[in-house]
Structures are given as structure tokens and as C-alpha cells.
Amino acid sequence: MNGKIVFIVSALSQPRCIKRITAIAKAGFDCSVYGYDRGMYRCNAYPDNIKVHTLGSLPSGSGYWAKLLMYKKDIDRIVRENGRDNVLYYGFGMLASIGLYLKKVKYAQEISDIAYAYPSFKRIEPLLRKFDKIIIKRSQLTVMTSEGFKQYYDLNDSNIIVQPNKVNVSLINVERKPLPPSCAEHLVFAYVGAIRYDTIFRFAETIGKYYPQHEYHFYGESRRDIMQEVDRLVSTYTNVKKYGAFKNPDDLPSIYNEIDVVTACYQVSSLNERIAEPNKLYEAMFFCKPIVVSDGIFLSEQVKKYGCGFCMDASTEENIRNFVDSLNGKELSDISHREYSMDTSVSIDNEETIINRIKTIFKR
Question: Which of 85, 143, 161, 269 has the maximum number of C-beta atoms within 10 A of its C-beta?
Fold first, then answer.
């Protein structure tokens, strides 16, 4: 297959990036990866046949101007090394996309969140959104991981593909078990992924404080201050447990085999969380686990569409207690069996559309 693809990622070992790049490389493209070490997900790795170049470390948090300058400098060097002829540059994240746009190379991009869709950017958000739309229109291909993002930009350009972050196809044949009606006697609630959000901590603390017959499990890692809060909860309550970083997708079957209810009650104060479509939705459906999400956001619309869980206001301890008290084994089992009966194409990733579009780009 003619054509070289140079990927630029903000976190080298981010599972979604590894999954996407691996699938594209398997389609026959010559792939190289350049990216930064973010200090997380280090248990995940690329196949040996994909060339990976570490650009250095990139701290989490703000300081976007300094990061943009770092990206620009690194992208200048990457383009010098790889050239422009028969090369497609593929950026994960806003800063990579800006750098590629400014460099005027042929580029694709992937939008998995909107970095400026937070309250601190409220005053300049309309300006950044306008600039982002220009970058999208100039791209050869823009992959969005949520239909909510496409609605936010209000674009229907032919170069846009909506591809949610679904379950890796390598798991398609793993055993899946729906919950029995007796499950409500002892429930394991869990958060699986990069840990964040006060609402998740509130849920875990409520389980720890009031429900000794149930458990709350954290699977994943995050910044030091967030992990300190997780450690506080674990040390305070014997039924709140932490399992740390995991390999995605390898460890997902064993993780979901241990839990009953997925909690993904994101804070609704952030626009980004209100329009995102996280992978937890599709993992919960695939592994037949009811999911609990915040009401009034795009994710809650998807949960209602598929009938795969519950929507609630998790902003107070009282609301969480009322919700937990209302759970019964039959309803949980009915949801789980509904997920079990779904065609796995709903929750398993399929890269064919992206790969075919990239093939078309190289034929132009």
C-alpha cells in the first residue's frame, strides 16, 4: 500500500490512539508515531512493527501557549524528517491539529474532546470554536468520537466521520454474562478509566459510608491530586477499593467480570462533558453491565436510546442514596439481558470507514 502516515499524539500510550493506529497500520499503511509521555497508561504498548518516537514529556493541566510552542517546534522537525510528498499527517488533539494546520501539510485529525469547552475558556470559546471549524474544513479528514461534537460545530462537511470510541475488535469473542436477578444483594459499582470528576468521588463515598453490603471499585489512574482523593476514600472505607492502571483491551474482560454497575456520572458544568460520548458507554453495553450517567447531557440521550442504564443527578449525596435505594435485581438483570441481546456491532469498533477514507485521500 503506497502512502505514509505520520501520527502525532499527545499521550503515546493512550489506548484509543494505540487502537486506531494499530488498525490503520494493519490495513497496509507505512505508519510512524511521534508523541509525548504523559506519565500514564504506560502498561499499554504499540505492536513492534510500528515505529514510535518519544518527543519528551508533556505535563497535564493548563499552560496551552507554552505547549503550543512546543508542538510547533516539534512538528517543524517532524515534517523536515518525513517530508510532504505522499505523506498524510494525523493529529490527535487540538494542539497537534493547530500545528499541522499552521505548517500547511496534508493532515487528518481526531477530536476526542474540546479542550476549550470548559468554564475557564468561556469568554474566548466562540473565537476558538470559529478557528477550530476552519481547521476542520481544511483537513483531509476529521474523525470525531461523538455525534455531540458534530452538533456543537454545526458542520456536515463530507470530510467528517463520527467514530465513537468503541470496544476493541480483539475482544469480540470473549464470554459475556448477563446479571442474574439476585445481583442486587451485593453490588459492585465501578469507575473504569482515567479517574476524574467530583461526582464520581461523591458516588464512591456514598457507597462507602452508607452501603456496607455493596462495594465501589476504581480501575485506572490520574493526576497525583486526584489519586490522593482516591487513596483517602480507600483508606476511609473498607468497601472502596483501588486497582490502579490496567492494560486496555487485555484486562477489560477480567475487570468487567468483577463489577455489576458502571458509574459515569460526569459533571454537567463543562460543555465538553455535556457533549462527549465516552468509551464507557460501549464497554458497559458489550459486557452487559448497566451504566449510570448524569442526566441532561448527550451521553444520557444515548443511554435512553439503547435502554442500557440509568440517568440521574449525582450532584448530591441524597440523590445518590435515593438512586441506590431504588435499585432492584430484576430491573438490573433486565437491562443486562437487553445489552446481551444487542448485536455486537453496536459496541465493537470498526475502522473500515476511516481506512477507506484514508485510501481515497492517497488516490487524489
Answer: 143
> Cα separations (Å) of 206 from 5, 14, 211, 240, 244?
48, 30, 7, 10, 21
3-state helix, strand, coil split of the chain in percent (to 5) is 45, 20, 35
Amino acid at 316: T
Q: d(Cα 295, Cα 336) in Å, to the nearest integer?
A: 20
Q: Where are the alpha helices (DSSP H) in 186-316?
A: 198-210, 224-236, 252-256, 271-275, 279-286, 298-306
125 φ/ψ angles, rounded to the nearest 5 degrees? -55, -45
Q: How many CA atoms lie within 13 A of 340 on its CB side?
A: 14
What do you get for the CA distance between the two ends of the chain, in Å?
A: 14
Give residue-wise pLDDT tens across range 44-86.
899 999 999 999 987 666 578 889 999 999 999 999 999 999 9
Beta carbons of 44 and 20 less than 8 angstroms apart: no
Cβ neighbors of 312 (< 8 A, separation 6 or more) are 265, 292, 293, 294, 295, 319, 320, 323
Joined together, the cell numbers standing for residue 87 give 505523506
Residue 331 burial (CB < 10 Å; 0-12/13-18/19+)? middle
Query: What is the distance between the alpha carbons of residues 20 and 28, in angstroms, rounded to a whole number?
Result: 13
3-state secondary structure of 105: coil
In which residue ranges of the chain is pLDDT below 70? 1-2, 59-62
